[in-house]
Amino acid sequence: MSELARISPPGAADELRAALADLTESEQSVLTRMIMAAKFDENGRAEIDEISIVREFMLTDPSMNTPSQPHGGMPPIIKPYTGRPFVPFPKERVEIDANLADVIKRRKSVRDFKRQTIELKTLATLLETGYGLVRYVSAYGEPRFPFRRAPSSGGLQSIEVYAAVNDVENLTPGVYHYQPERRGLTLLDPGLVRRRCVRACLNQDWIGESGVVLFLTCDLRKLLWKYGRRAYRMSHVDAGVVAQQLHLIATALGLGSCMVAGFVEEAVHKLLDVDGKLEFAALGICVGVPVDAPSH
Ligand SMILES: Cc1cc2nc3c(=O)[nH]c(=O)nc-3n(C[C@H](O)[C@H](O)[C@H](O)COP(=O)(O)O)c2cc1C
Q1: How far, in Å, is the centroid of ligand 1 from the Cα of 273?
Q2: What's the domain range around 103?
Q3: Is the pTM value of this prediction over 0.85?
Q4: Which residue, 10, 36, 87, 160, is the most exposed by fewest CB within 10 angstroms?
Q5: Which residue has the higher pLDDT, 73 or 236?
């Protein structure tokens, strides 16, 4: 009897058993581990989510599990997009004249936004102060290795930032990718995204009132070549670092923001056009003008 057959719930339907028998040995091995790791509710239904799938994929796929030598195999640190419309940021920035302790005291999750356009210079300030390029250094055999405003595991900047734009000055609504080196946004998919964001985020309606939803993805490729299976853990820590930085800077800029982990992974992966395995959505941050903000 295979290991999988042994752990299958005794009441499992015959069709299920037959379907399992069709799997290859390595697929059976992944599934076995997932079943063993899954939590079961009182009706015996397993909760197997995207995270456990990615994790199992990483732990069992040999190509994911072997860190290669440092200085070899490092993917581009700044994800390139070519042949797409690009919107450069304006030169102007908003001056942040805030005291860190005050910002921390003022910080809260804001979910009540008024429909007011966010200025592009404000979004630029948020992205650049939170996760912009600081300088180039010589590292990993690269004479011009970029450093960013947030710390990251190995300095490898595993987090990519996408912006689902609802209402930002001079930006067509749609999905953009933040390009720190070129100082602007690449337009990936034009079109209204309010309802798509709400639906992807488990119908949290207030999200539709935000000016922009920033989605942070983890690009495991940047970490795997160096850290192997530890990459998965580190990618989430990296996401938390960038998220909190953006949340605090939004507060300092007088914007309201709220992190969102309540989303359907597949829907967000589709929205951002990422594969959900080597690059997957970690967190959203909704940003908007709070209802209690003074009117101009
Ligand atoms: C990782 C993470 C995910 C979150 N996801 C959601 C979410 O999906 N929806 C939501 O309304 N709030 C979400 N929040 C916000 C929390 O509910 C909020 O931080 C908490 O209630 C404490 O309130 P405060 O941030 O105002 O102090 C999330 C916060 C974090 C850190």
Answers
A1: 25
A2: 86-290
A3: no
A4: 10
A5: 236
